[in-house]
Amino acid sequence: MSPKEQATEQQNHFTLGIDVGGTKIAAGLVDPQGTILYQTRVPMPAREDAAAGFAALESAINAVFAAQPQARDALAGIGICAPGPLDPIRGIVLNPPNLPCWHNFPLADEVQRVFHVCAKIDNDANAAGLAEAIWGAGVGFRNVFYATLGTGIGTGIIFDGRIYHGRTGSAAEGGHVSIDYNGPRCGCGKRGCIEALCSGPAIAQRARTRLAESSTPSSLRELTESKFENLSAEDVAKAFHAGDALAKGVLEATADLLTVWMGNMIDLLEPEVIIFGGGIAQLMSDFFPRMQLELPKWSINARCCEIPLLLAKYGSDAGIAGAAALCRQQPWTVAPMTVRK
Ligand SMILES: [Zn+2]
Fold first, then answer.
1. Is 92 within 8 Å of 86 (Cβ atoms)?
2. 192 CA to middle of ligand 1, Å?
3. How far apart are the CA of 145 and the centre of ligand 1, in A?
4. How far away, in angstroms, is 1 Cα from ligand 1 center?
5. Which burial class, exposed, middle or buried, applies to 5 when counting CB atoms under 10 A from its CB (0-12, 13-18, 19+)?
6. How far is CA 56 from the centre of its chain?
7. 146-174 pLDDT per residue, tens
8. Which one, 110, 139, 159, 299, has the greatest CB density within 10 A?
9. Ligand 1 centre distance from Cα of residue 189 (Å)
């Protein structure tokens, strides 16, 4: 078979995308165009031992094969995204707080050994960013900066269809870039990380503080006491969409902080596009024009306003699509430099 024919055949193969979370595993069959053809879910026994965790992963993969038998013989690879920390270069899950069953677990090698197909692992945001770059909102752009806004903030940097991993695979932790050393303490231990300022829980906290400190009328004041204690970013979103001024102010302040951070990211990377995914990206997209307008105050890049801010194509399927995309990464066009130990 000629290299061209080989490449064509490779393109026709399916990939499996497996999204491993703390309570469930989502597994999907993805075609070469990034369309999810089939997906299923199984529970993840994250607090049991390594073998039980791996058995759950195997059962998720086998469930896809059972429903889509054509996939088994035409599989280009199995991609897995899992909570960090992990080593994407060596395919090892290190010691994720949300997956105590796997400690220094060679997940990629194990999957390869059992299923006899190429296996790749990476964290959720890197994987989701890659899926956007090759199949989603980032198609046509060479360099993509991706941010997922949700319970936390994760980022991925994609250069020429490849994830930028850094020296040990720990690069692109943009959610833990601080913009205020006196800011609120982040879960990671640092102060003023953008995650501590603009994640879903941070938006809820900002709303609670404003409700306590101001007398601005707001429908959020009408929430019952127990609901008020558990006030969420979704409550703020609902109020905003109903025209609530306080909720709007909370989201504008969040957008302004994101803009400061985005200016830093642009000055560092100058990506061709910035893509927002995750649970609250849709909500924040109402503020993209505001962010774009304010951006020149926070970036020295004279052409920063030309960089499009886009909403991700993949929503709740970003994990499956991202994991599958790991098997579609572009090969290096030049040999990577040798890593000094
Ligand atoms: Zn942090």
1. yes
2. 7
3. 18
4. 50
5. exposed
6. 23
7. 999 999 999 999 999 999 999 999 999 99
8. 299
9. 6
